[in-house]
Amino acid sequence: MLADERHSLIITEVDQRGGPYPPQSSLKDLSELAERGLIVKVHGDARSVHSTNNPTFDTKFSTNRTAKEALARVAAEFIHDGASLAFSAVTTRRW
Predict the structure, then answer these.
(1) Which burial class, exposed, middle or buried, applies to 75 when counting CB atoms under 10 A from its CB (0-12, 13-18, 19+)?
(2) Residue 94 has pLDDT above 60, yes or no
(3) 38: containing domain
């Protein structure tokens, strides 16, 4: 697929969803589209330039809650006495 075709598909997908970007998109494509002002690149994500969607903490907290709880249960198995634990600002999403 040519770059213009990929870019068109990515823009359409991001505009329809308002974000986040399709997971099969390359970072190079996202960077090029952001440089051209066709999407807004956010850390690990991309948003539509037309989107005003900025969900609240409570909305983000409750979204995909079952998946988040499942991840926490699995992660807890790796924590042992004397271990260090670090958290990062990330989210879960389903495609």
Answers:
(1) exposed
(2) no
(3) 1-85
